[in-house]
Amino acid sequence: MKLKALQISGFKSFADKTTINFEDGITGIVGPNGSGKSNIIEAVRWVMGEQSAKSLRGGKMPDVIFAGSQDRKPLNRAAVTITFDNSDHFLKTDYTEVSVTRKLFRNGDSQYLINQNDCRLKDVLNLFIDTGLGRDSFSVISQGRVEAIFNSKPEDRRTIIEEVAGVLAYKQDKQKAEQE
Ligand code: ATP
Ligand code: MG
């Protein structure tokens, strides 16, 4: 499984539709302060289901929508699509290419799609559970997170290790079964 492309439109500083294609090897994103590097990583976390506006450096979720600049009006919609090459079926779906889209409108309406089909947030979260991807995963390590992991409570640290080990899905199934 491999990250292929990221398409950002109306999200944070990316007013125009911007596509980043990830070629083989390592991709580095460089640019001056404030040019949008962190916004790209936040787009990745957002499209995979991040629900905390605060962790995206905003007060409320619509703050991720392009807020306008000196010469541009604010936009009404943010949209991000992430595309994976899934020919090894690492993501548990029959698709050999998987794209996930999230859209948010200023009136609060939101939409999630997997391969252009409407779905629920839960479907997106399930797609990434125990893969090491996903909104809370260890594959996206933001500034300060390493320190936060070291300083976290043992139970929280255990959750991180369980996700790495791939047992979180079973644990959640067990909890659900016990509630029923
Ligand atoms: P640094 O090198 O300092 O870490 P960076 O390249 O990571 O910088 P970002 O933090 O990604 O930069 O981008 C910050 C810029 O994004 C700021 O100029 C900010 O005004 C802009 N920005 C954030 N949210 C929005 C929004 N909703 N609409 C328009 N611009 C936004
Ligand atoms: Mg930054």
Based on the structure given, which CATH architecture of the largest domain is correct? 3-Layer(aba) Sandwich
The average pLDDT is: 92
CATH class of the largest domain: Alpha Beta
- The CATH superfamily label of the largest domain reads P-loop containing nucleotide triphosphate hydrolases
Rounded radius of gyration (Å): 17 Å
Helix tally equals: 5
Class based on secondary structure composition and strand pairing: alpha+beta
Task: Name the ligand types.
Answer: adenosine-5'-triphosphate, magnesium ion
Total number of beta strands: 6
Helical fraction equals: 25-40%
Q: Unreliable runs, pLDDT <50, ≥5 residues?
A: none
Structure keywords:
180 residues, alpha+beta, Rossmann fold, 2 domains, binds adenosine-5'-triphosphate, binds magnesium ion
